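Researcher: I'd like a structural prediction for the single chain below. Treat it as a standalone chain; there are no partners to consider.
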Amino acid sequence: MAKFLLDTDVCIAFLKGKNNLIEKVNKIGIENCYVSEITIGELTYGAYYSNQFEKHKKDVLKIKKLFEIMPIFECLEIFGKEKARLRKTGNLIHDFDLLIGSTAVHFGMTMVTNNGKHLKRILGIKIENWIKNDINKTFET
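Model: Treating it as a single chain, here is the predicted structure.
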């Protein structure tokens, strides 16, 4: 069964009950959906930055309970290689996006994001957009 790495924007839409994401996750199987440590960091930052800290902190805990969290340590080789390549070509993307995307590539997962415009720059990444229903697109640069 395919494995899917949910980007931060998808987790936020999931928590808000948007785009039938709860149904999509249930259909694929929650055991086949994962998040990056970086996503947990971004969601935690969002909780502290918001005016509804308690609500959003509970959202972070919900994501942590529902999905297995993938470590980034093993993905740092891909991150470094891709960041150097992207910088040389003048196509840099934000480090956190690159770390999350590198995690998907390293573990052979499909990246689920609404940010394909930037993430498609990562070599070998497979992207699906469950928010716009663009599935099974593989981007290679």
